[in-house]
Design a protein that fits this description.
The protein has 80 residues and is mainly beta. It contains no helices and six strands.
Length: 80
């Protein structure tokens, strides 16, 4: 599941889990969950969170972690 992490002026961080896209709406930046992988905000999108745009320092998209099958076992990372 994708997420966004934002850094605000006070250097506090907020994570918006489930957001696929974001857009500026007037003085607010709003994060949305879309109904498809298109990352396009439309009438079917769900608003998850809004923040005053002037308070946002950085926005970072967080991709989902790899599936467990794709990860090497921990024993493979240790020297023998």
């Amino acid at each position: 599941m994708t997420a966004y992490e934002i850094t605000l002026k006070g250097h506090e961080s907020e994570r918006i889990v489930g957001a696929d896209a974001y857009a500026q709406e007037g003085q607010l930046t709003t994060f949305f969950r879309t109904t498809s992988a298109r990352q396009t905000v439309d009438c079917w999108s769900v608003r998850l969170a809004s923040f005053r745009t002037s308070e946002i320092l950085a926005v970072r998209r967080l991709e989902p972690l790899a599936a467990a099958d794709d990860v090497a076992p921990l024993s493979a990372l240790r020297p023998a």
